[in-house]
């Protein structure tokens, strides 16, 4: 079967590898679509290539990425009774169940759990070398547990985006969004649009989208943003105070590529007693302790590792979110290099690879 793997900095190669065989307790699944996560793009083009040790690079080179996917069951392993051939499934985080965090009900912070397709799985896997089980391939083998069955009402395209939507759900829950809370989403890439969708479903109003890219702002409008702001054309801080009277209740920081100054701007724009939720990779920031003290702003980071897949899939099942506009192109797996380049160059927002 064909698989797309990391060949080097900015380089994706198409390989011919052995198709896995079903084993007891496992599901052999044919990948329908695999979405390319922003983290995947960072791993291919990011600064790690210039500063990492040979040992670290050995985990990247040859790795098969892909953890945002939907697949159809082709064969069911011995002992599996809850799945049938033809079922569609999405992946879940696999916590260890025994570490400090798992024992305290915080399995999303598991010290040893894995999201399949992430290169750092190599540090937790008994298999030496780069991880080879990501979904940027034709077939995948997965344990029958820790899967979610995709309802008939959810399209293949939506299901492939369930994992990034779960990131938006996690951020929304962390922010404790209430009906009519004003919220601003800064950065409308792959993840920012999912945060926007989840905040919309939670009842945020007004929901304000900020980005420098006009096409992304257009997509945000299609996905439910009440107001769009482009920093190059608008004094964003003044506009937000005019719209909300005091500044938004919540600012979601969803930028990538370590954008400078964004976290400080988010801190400045929220109202006294507001919340700043860090979802993306903003640059290191300098926040005044005195301002933090007097504004009483809550700043939190949030990471999704699986549990939010359940509510995310429910939102899709019952049509509470419209995430289709975020998928700007479906590209054949054999053209994976073009797909990665299009995201790196901001020509696309979300891309689905089709084996």
Helices, strands, pairings?
Elements: E1 2-8, E2 11-16, E3 26-35, H1 38-45, H2 48-51, H3 54-60, E4 68-76, E5 88-91, E6 139-143, E7 147-149, H4 156-160, H5 162-175, E8 183-186, H6 190-202, E9 207-210, H7 214-222, E10 227-229, H8 236-244, E11 250-253, H9 262-269, E12 275-278, H10 289-295, E13 298-301, H11 309-317, E14 327-332, H12 336-344, E15 350-354
Parallel strand pairs: 8-9, 8-11, 9-10, 11-12, 12-13, 14-15
Antiparallel strand pairs: 1-2, 3-4, 3-6, 3-15, 4-5, 5-7
Corresponding CATH superfamily of the largest domain: Medium-chain alcohol dehydrogenases, catalytic domain
Q: Determine the mean pLDDT.
A: 91
User: How many H/I helical runs?
Assistant: 12
User: Would you identify the CATH architecture of the largest domain?
Assistant: Alpha-Beta Complex
> pLDDT under 50 segments (min length 5)?
119-126
CATH fold name of the largest domain, please?
Answer: Quinone Oxidoreductase, Chain A, domain 1
Helix content: 25-40%
- Give the overall form: globular
Roughly what fraction of the amino acids lie in strands?
A: 15-25%
How far apart the termini lie comes to: 10 Å
Return the domain count: 2
Please report the total strand number as a whole number.
15
Main sheet summary: 7 strands, mixed
Structural class given helices, strands, pairing?
alpha/beta
SSE string: EEEHHHEEEEHHEHEHEHEHEHEHEHE
Q: Given this structure, which CATH class of the largest domain is correct?
A: Alpha Beta
Rg over C-alpha atoms, rounded to the nearest angstrom: 20 Å
Quaternary organisation:
single chain
